[in-house]
């Protein structure tokens, strides 16, 4: 089970000095920078009396906002809203800003993982950590875990999953292309097993600075 | 994942040791821990600590302050609104400070406080649903060490650094206090106010505090000796 090869991950926490929490993460050649600010005061119209309002901003490399960016923002917002214990901070806002730096495939999974690391760094109360993984079905019908950009564009189907750290249950799942039910189940099982590696990586990063704070 | 005391923990982990087996045993859970139906779950990344007999908490990295009752904080007066002052303590909303909660204050004898003043105060009310409230007196009506901080210099730092230097086991202040005279107030909201005799000494003190963030105890001692030597002019 443990022979999965994920792209090499490198991370630096607290990359930005002014934000409450930040992380820069590279998965293979894809690099994403995320910053978290909050819980802080927001406009009364946006306040929710029972939980914190999470706002996600995704900035692409070109700098022009597009519909695809809104889609990514939505996925990340829904994923992080389940992870954050918003009920601890009612009537406040938490802002999550994500900047794409390099994109060589797997941008969205890298963005979700980076957002999770930034949230961990900020000290916001969380229900669980999240780990995103992607998988694609190539022309021959074989599953490829963590595909490269070329593999992903040539693939018949692309599947993305986000798991929580408690029971490894599915938090978010979205797919493109055609595939059979069996393929989906297998991809889910593989990604779930590989999510252990991502959580182990998080623990590694946190243990780097933990013993001297 | 199951963890035990002293481990590096991530949100979503749980510790079996914390959940009491029988009804009579009691545990105290501190920051970073949260009771849910079956277990006590961890909500912050850091190290799980225990103090005997049954107190548990997480030591974590944090920059943003969330007000907690009973903590001493450093705030900046931002507004005078009738009977209260509004004070920025770094939380999501400003805190209220009544003009009567100063030593010897009466309706006629109001404390002299200007917008922009720095105060050292205690949080008496801090609930997630309400505006926090500060006082500058203890329950006997004495001001103690609370009140306006005049002159000096205030800077911000991560909250875990304040916890670290206030820890009685931390050698930083013990090493520095013998080297040159200074005054210091550390607010649990990640603000530190310092006052020394000269600008040079203030800068040295500020650098020593900020430099201690990621150093171990023995490295802190070394750094303090180093700074003291530079300040005394032995090393240029």
Automatic annotation (TrEMBL), chain A:
<dbReference type="GO" id="GO:0000176">
    <property type="term" value="C:nuclear exosome (RNase complex)"/>
</dbReference>
<dbReference type="InterPro" id="IPR027408">
    <property type="entry name" value="PNPase/RNase_PH_dom_sf"/>
</dbReference>
<dbReference type="GO" id="GO:0003723">
    <property type="term" value="F:RNA binding"/>
</dbReference>
<keyword id="KW-0539">Nucleus</keyword>
<dbReference type="GO" id="GO:0005730">
    <property type="term" value="C:nucleolus"/>
</dbReference>
<comment type="similarity">
    <text>Belongs to the RNase PH family.</text>
</comment>
<dbReference type="InterPro" id="IPR001247">
    <property type="entry name" value="ExoRNase_PH_dom1"/>
</dbReference>
<dbReference type="GO" id="GO:0006364">
    <property type="term" value="P:rRNA processing"/>
</dbReference>
<dbReference type="GO" id="GO:0000177">
    <property type="term" value="C:cytoplasmic exosome (RNase complex)"/>
</dbReference>
<dbReference type="GO" id="GO:0034475">
    <property type="term" value="P:U4 snRNA 3'-end processing"/>
</dbReference>
<dbReference type="Pfam" id="PF01138">
    <property type="entry name" value="RNase_PH"/>
</dbReference>
<protein>
    <submittedName>
        <fullName>Exosome complex component RRP46</fullName>
    </submittedName>
</protein>
<dbReference type="InterPro" id="IPR050080">
    <property type="entry name" value="RNase_PH"/>
</dbReference>
<feature type="domain" description="Exoribonuclease phosphorolytic">
    <location>
        <begin position="6"/>
        <end position="124"/>
    </location>
</feature>
<dbReference type="GO" id="GO:0016075">
    <property type="term" value="P:rRNA catabolic process"/>
</dbReference>
<dbReference type="GO" id="GO:0071028">
    <property type="term" value="P:nuclear mRNA surveillance"/>
</dbReference>
<keyword id="KW-0698">rRNA processing</keyword>
<dbReference type="InterPro" id="IPR036345">
    <property type="entry name" value="ExoRNase_PH_dom2_sf"/>
</dbReference>
<dbReference type="InterPro" id="IPR020568">
    <property type="entry name" value="Ribosomal_Su5_D2-typ_SF"/>
</dbReference>
<keyword id="KW-0271">Exosome</keyword>
<dbReference type="GO" id="GO:0071051">
    <property type="term" value="P:poly(A)-dependent snoRNA 3'-end processing"/>
</dbReference>
UniProtKB/TrEMBL annotation, chain B:
<keyword id="KW-0698">rRNA processing</keyword>
<dbReference type="Pfam" id="PF15985">
    <property type="entry name" value="KH_6"/>
</dbReference>
<dbReference type="GO" id="GO:0071038">
    <property type="term" value="P:TRAMP-dependent tRNA surveillance pathway"/>
</dbReference>
<dbReference type="InterPro" id="IPR041054">
    <property type="entry name" value="Rrp40_N_euk"/>
</dbReference>
<dbReference type="GO" id="GO:0005730">
    <property type="term" value="C:nucleolus"/>
</dbReference>
<dbReference type="InterPro" id="IPR049469">
    <property type="entry name" value="RRP40_KH-I"/>
</dbReference>
<dbReference type="GO" id="GO:0071034">
    <property type="term" value="P:CUT catabolic process"/>
</dbReference>
<keyword id="KW-0694">RNA-binding</keyword>
<dbReference type="InterPro" id="IPR037319">
    <property type="entry name" value="Rrp40_S1"/>
</dbReference>
<dbReference type="GO" id="GO:0003723">
    <property type="term" value="F:RNA binding"/>
</dbReference>
<dbReference type="GO" id="GO:0000177">
    <property type="term" value="C:cytoplasmic exosome (RNase complex)"/>
</dbReference>
<dbReference type="GO" id="GO:0010468">
    <property type="term" value="P:regulation of gene expression"/>
</dbReference>
<feature type="domain" description="Exosome complex exonuclease Rrp40 N-terminal">
    <location>
        <begin position="27"/>
        <end position="64"/>
    </location>
</feature>
<dbReference type="InterPro" id="IPR012340">
    <property type="entry name" value="NA-bd_OB-fold"/>
</dbReference>
<dbReference type="GO" id="GO:0071035">
    <property type="term" value="P:nuclear polyadenylation-dependent rRNA catabolic process"/>
</dbReference>
<keyword id="KW-0271">Exosome</keyword>
<comment type="similarity">
    <text>Belongs to the RRP40 family.</text>
</comment>
<dbReference type="InterPro" id="IPR004088">
    <property type="entry name" value="KH_dom_type_1"/>
</dbReference>
<dbReference type="GO" id="GO:0034475">
    <property type="term" value="P:U4 snRNA 3'-end processing"/>
</dbReference>
<dbReference type="InterPro" id="IPR036612">
    <property type="entry name" value="KH_dom_type_1_sf"/>
</dbReference>
<dbReference type="InterPro" id="IPR026699">
    <property type="entry name" value="Exosome_RNA_bind1/RRP40/RRP4"/>
</dbReference>
<keyword id="KW-0539">Nucleus</keyword>
């Amino acid at each position: 089970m443990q022979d999965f090869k994920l792209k090499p991950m490198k991370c630096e926490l607290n990359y930005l000095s002014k934000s409450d929490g930040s992380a820069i993460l590279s998965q293979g050649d894809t690099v994403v920078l995320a910053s978290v600010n909050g819980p802080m005061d927001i406009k009364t119209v946006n306040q929710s009396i029972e939980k914190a309002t999470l706002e996600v901003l995704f900035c692409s490399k070109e700098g022009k906002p597009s519909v695809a960016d809104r889609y990514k923002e939505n996925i990340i917002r829904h994923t992080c809203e389940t992870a954050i214990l918003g009920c601890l901070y009612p009537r406040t806002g938490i802002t999550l800003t994500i900047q794409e730096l390099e994109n060589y495939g797997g941008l969205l999974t890298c963005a979700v993982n980076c957002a999770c690391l930034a949230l961990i760094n900020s000290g916001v109360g969380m229900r669980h950590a999240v780990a995103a993984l992607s998988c694609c079905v190539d022309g021959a019908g074989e599953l490829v875990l963590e595909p490269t950009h070329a593999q992903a564009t040539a693939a018949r189907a692309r599947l993305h999953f986000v798991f929580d750290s408690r029971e490894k249950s599915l938090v978010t799942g979205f797919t493109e292309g055609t595939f059979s039910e069996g393929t989906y189940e297998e991809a889910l099982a593989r990604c779930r097993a590989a999510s252990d590696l991502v959580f182990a990586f998080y623990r590694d990063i946190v243990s780097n600075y933990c013993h001297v704070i | 994942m199951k963890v035990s005391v002293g481990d590096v923990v991530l949100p979503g982990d749980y510790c079996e040791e914390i959940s009491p087996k029988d009804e009579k045993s009691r545990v105290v859970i501190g920051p970073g821990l949260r009771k849910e139906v079956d277990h006590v779950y961890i909500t912050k990344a850091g190290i799980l600590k225990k103090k005997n007999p049954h107190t548990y908490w997480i030591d974590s990295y944090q920059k943003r302050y969330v007000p907690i009752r009973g903590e001493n904080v450093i705030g900046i007066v931002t507004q005078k609104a009738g009977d209260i002052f509004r004070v920025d303590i770094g939380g999501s909303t400003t805190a209220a400070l009544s003009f009567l909660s100063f030593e010897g204050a009466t309706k006629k004898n109001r404390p002299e406080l200007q917008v922009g003043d720095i105060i050292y105060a205690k949080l008496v009310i801090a609930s997630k649903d309400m505006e926090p409230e500060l006082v500058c007196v203890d329950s006997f009506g004495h001001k103690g060490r609370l009140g306006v901080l005049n002159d000096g210099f205030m800077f911000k730092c991560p909250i875990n650094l304040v916890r670290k230097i206030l820890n009685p086991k931390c050698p930083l202040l013990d090493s520095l206090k013998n080297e040159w005279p200074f005054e210091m107030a550390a607010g649990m909201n990640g603000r530190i106010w310092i006052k020394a005799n000269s600008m040079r000494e203030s800068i040295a003190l500020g650098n020593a505090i900020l430099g201690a963030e990621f150093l171990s105890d023995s490295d802190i001692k070394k750094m303090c000796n180093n700074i003291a030597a530079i300040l005394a002019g032995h090393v240029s």
